[in-house]
Design goal:
This protein has ten helices and ten strands. The protein is an alpha/beta fold. The strands form three sheets. It has a five-stranded parallel sheet with strand order 2-1-6-5-8. It has a three-stranded mixed sheet with strand order 3-4-7. It is elongated and about 80 Å long. The chain binds ligand 4GX.
Length: about 250
């Protein structure tokens, strides 16, 4: 996949995109990330790309021309052009999956008070927000989107746990994980995980995953597809809770 990122601050991306899994994917040629400075498309001698808003008000607005010319120089016709902004659709795992199937993404990161509206009107095909809070620029949102999308591209996670095993793939929260030692500051690893009984371990993990989702994110559980086994596990939990409640009533 090719991803072009338009920004006034390309250096902000150097840490996250030159480390860990994203770095490896880039080195292996699975992911071609191209950081493009909007300022390189300014046509004046001071290399400015912003100006004051028509109608007055505070802050500076990024002009349409450098953004149009940057996108036109990069788009071979089939790019999916996304602007990072609070007005966009809220990013989630299903949008990440949708984007992971594209060949070419162009992400536009605004800074300052925003970008001339004509960019949104006729250059952008998609607007994405990473949540309801205000940031100083679209760079952090672009990093979040690239990270979530990249790990879904076949070969990026490699030997690691596949994306299909992800909690959010099925719409559940993860089960708890432990590693050595067996006892740490009097806190024990659940016995079933030490048993070597793979079937019991699988059922225990599924149960923990379901219960966590039920308690912390009931909204996810409503949407998720439950297997017969899931329903059985949840019935067991309900029975246990009912018993505890009854014993409390009687005392
Ligand atoms: N999820 N911001 C973008 C400037 C801006 C405004 C309008 C284009 C159009 C944000 C978020 C976010 C702040 C990034 C305003 N650019 N982006 N910036 N939350 O808060 O994506």
């Amino acid at each position: 996949m090719r991803i072009d990122i338009l920004t006034l601050f390309p250096e902000m991306f150097f840490g996250p995109f030159d480390s860990s899994i994203i770095k490896r994917a880039r080195d292996r040629g699975i992911l071609n990330i191209n950081l493009v400075n909007i300022r390189d498309f300014s046509q004046n001698k001071h290399r400015t790309v912003d100006d004051t808003p028509y109608g007055g008000g505070s802050g500076m607005i990024i002009q349409a021309d450098p953004v149009f010319r940057a996108v036109e120089s990069l788009n071979e016709g089939d790019a999916h052009v996304i602007m990072m902004c609070p007005q966009g659709r809220t990013f989630n795992q299903s949008i990440a999956m949708e984007l992971s199937r594209k060949k070419h993404l162009i992400l536009i990161c605004g800074h300052y008070e925003g970008i001339d509206e004509r960019v949104r009107e006729s250059l952008v095909s998609d607007e994405i927000s990473i949540g309801d809070y205000v940031l100083t620029g679209g760079e952090l949102p672009a990093m979040v989107v690239v990270d979530a999308v990249a790990r879904l591209i076949p070969g990026v996670l490699g030997e690691m746990k596949s994306a299909v095993e992800d909690s959010f793939y099925e719409g559940f929260l993860d089960y708890p994980s432990y590693t050595k030692p067996r006892v740490y500051r009097d806190m024990k690893v659940p016995e079933v995980l030490l048993s070597g009984h793979h079937e019991n371990i699988r059922v225990w993990r599924r149960g923990e995953s379901l219960i966590r989702t039920l308690v912390r994110r009931p909204d996810l559980l409503k949407k998720a597809k439950l297997t017969c086994e899931d329903i059985e596990i949840l019935r067991d939990v309900k029975e246990k809770i009912t018993k505890i409640l009854q014993s409390k009533k009687n005392t």
